[in-house]
Structures are given as C-alpha cells and as structure tokens.
Amino acid sequence: MISPRARLVCPALRWRRGSFRSERTKIEQALAAGVGGFILFGGTRAAVTALTAALRDLAKRPLLIGSDFERGPGQQVRGLTELPPPAALGYLNDLDATYACGQITGTEARAVGLTWVFAPVCDLDTEPKNPIVQTRSFGADPSLVGSHAAAWIKGCQEHGVMACAKHYPGHGRTTTDSHEGLPIVEALGEEVQRTDVAPFKAAVDAAVGSVMPAFVAYPRWDASGSAATFSPIILGYLRDTLGFRGLTVTDAFIMGGATAAAPEGNAAAAAIAAGCDMLLYPTDWAGVVRSLETVPADRAETALARYEQAVAAWAGPGQPIELDDALLGEHQKFADQLADRAVHLVRGERPQLSATLSITIVDDDVGGPYTIPPRDVFAKSLTAQGARFLRHPTPDTRHLVLVYAEPRSWKGRADLGPVSRARLERLVPGASLVILFAHPRLAAQIPGDVPVLCAWHGQALMQRAAARWVAAKA
Predict the structure, then answer these.
(1) Staple partner for 90: which of 43, 139, 249, 437, CB 3.0–4.6 Å?
(2) Rounded CA gap, 201 and 180, in Å?
(3) Where does a domain end: 267, 296, 314?
(4) How many domains, in total, are found in the chain?
(5) CB 99 within 8 A of CB 50
C-alpha cells in the first residue's frame, strides 16, 4: 500500500562488488511504497547513469536522487571529476574557482541523472579537536566560509542540480562525531547565531535549495537538549529569521546522533514533527515510512508540499547534458591546475631532491570499516615523470614520508593516532620531505624540523599534484 508520506523518505543505494544488483529488491519495494528519492554511494559513470534512468522508468515519476559530492563528482562516481577539498578552496580564496567547482559538480551530476548534491559544508573549522569537519570546511572565518559556500551553491544550482547547505547551525565546535553519538555544543545560542550560522545565512541568501540540520545539541539555545534536527526552536530560526523556504533534509539516520534519544522510527517522526521535510538514509526505510503515520497532518502536509516544490524545481527532465570526453578533459585540466595551486609548504624550505627517491607511507586511515583510496598514485605519477625508486638506496637517494590522515567517521579524533606518531618519530630523522595528505594543522605533529608539504587529502587528484610538485623540485 502506498503512503503519501513515503515521499518524505530517501533510502540509500550502495555499489557493492562491482554493481548495484544487490539493491534490486530494495529498489522495487521502496518505489512500490512511494519513496521520494534515493542517496547513491559509489558506482561508475555508466552504472550510475543507467541506474538513475532505471529508477525513473520504474517509478514513472520524478525523483530526487542525490549523492555526497563535497570533493566533486569523482568522490563517489568513478570516471567523473575529483576536485580539491573545501579547505583547499578556502586556502586559495578564489571565488571564481569555487564557483567553477560548483559548476563542474552540477554539470556532471546532472549528466549522470543526479538532481541533488549533499554539499557544500558550511561548518566552521574552528575546533582543532573536531574529529569530522577539518578539511571538509572552507575555513574558520564565517565571512570567508559564507562567500565560498554561496559561490559554490550558485555554480551548482545554475547548472541544474539542487545544493544542500550542511550541517545547520554548524558542526564546527564539536569534539564528538555525530556518526558515533550526540555532540553537545555549550556555546550561547546568541554566539552560535552570530558566528556559526553566518555561512548558512549566506547560503540562504544565495537561494540554496536545501539545508541539512546537524545531529548536534545546543542546550544554551534550546534548553530541551534536542539535536537541531529535532528542535522546533532551532529549525524555526532557520525558517523565521533566516527566511529559508526550501527543503530541509536530515543527515543520515544510520548515524549515532540520529537515534541517541529515541529508536529510529520514533526519531524519524520527531524530526518531521519538529520541522524537517525529508529523512535521509534510514536503516529500516519501511519501518520509518510506517512511523510517519504518527506525524500531525498539518506538519506532514507542509513537508510534502516542500518536497513537491523541490521535485518541480529540480527533478524535471531539464536540458540534456552531453558529458563527452572533451568536456571531462577540460574539467580534469581545471581540477589539476587548482590542485597544483593548493599544494604548498607549511614548514621549512624547499628541499634539494634528486631523481632517486625512496618512499615510506604512514597511513592513519587504516583500521576502520571503510576501504581507503589507492595510495600508489603518488609513486606511479612520479615514475611517469622520470623518478626512480631503488630497493637499495644510494647516498644520493632522498627519502619521502607520505602521511595520510583524512577525517573519517570511525576515528573519533582529529589528531594522528599513537601508531602513526610512533612511526613518524622513527622515520622523520632520515627524511628530506614529509608530504601531508591531511589538514595543515597536523604539521605540528610531525617531529623535528623536516620540511612539510601540505597536499590536503589522500584522493588521487591531490596525490598527482604532490607528485608534480616533487618532480619540479627534483
């Protein structure tokens, strides 16, 4: 039986073992129930294009189909363009470049049938111990973050795809990861409104189509201690004071912060009752659909009306986009140039390097439940540019230490772990250069005075850029 309220639910579809086939039953049942869309994780360009077309054919209606593209479409979809992380864009502080990143993201997303991008992150990078924001943020200054968020939103939405400002009213002050539990921000509500909310105001002023509240509590704003997702007070500020008229979507309900106060079904109903319009990535989508029958009729009708408005604005057929190899090549060239500009020394002087090198990797991202990206891109890129890697170093060999440390939900920390720090203590004394594929503040954890090159993130794009920097100095 189809429930109209099922439109407010957005299940997840994951690429597993080389296809989306394992999701076939979920797709059939969810569409039969009447869900409003899906969030996609992984896949190839061809597979995602085929899947989104099949979803619409099966549904016989428009759908909101989205994905996490904070670092460009290549973050999720193989064959599309990777872009530098937001922190690198904030460092460059080139609004035209940030607009172009939004444009590339919107263009490529639309070309593979996606109509919704869960980006940009509007959180402030103000807490060094924050385990989950870090390089996902444009920076610490509210004005800078707001300017870049607005530029990115315009670039994306002017090219046919709805953006999503997250995680309102700001996840930047937290020291707990909302994937694991409920973070609590003790700052006064007035202070949060003055600083943390400022980038979200810029996003609203830029006509962002959707906003994602945080699974974070602000008890000195809403004394009930409810997370923003469940707070009529905090969500009311978004509507009544900031003037947001678009779609409000929860963060993923698989996260610990979603169910810290109530089971999933009760929490989902509470989110809609408080003022959210859509529920993202529930663990039990069918149970969540049933739970929505307890939501007051007027609140459910308002949420459904906002969903329909978003579908009408973003999920229609639109102009077909031809994503040929020439256009992808232009996008890749732009991304590489941007990455080259973002790579920079954060400590020391340029070292004297030779064409004979050795490499050791310190990978702080190993050990969690998720696979890590390939770590051999840097060495392969250098080899292609003439570098030699010897098994038995000669006196002329220069040793490079590569440090990978991305914000990952399982870590629960912002610093390098003890194993990584212990390895660096042993390795750094003999190194000519440390390349930090992480937030530049982690340079403070690199012992000694060896030069440190910041390359921001371990994605293939930034590994290639770091390799070009080294090749130019060898």
Answers:
(1) 139
(2) 28
(3) 314
(4) 2
(5) no
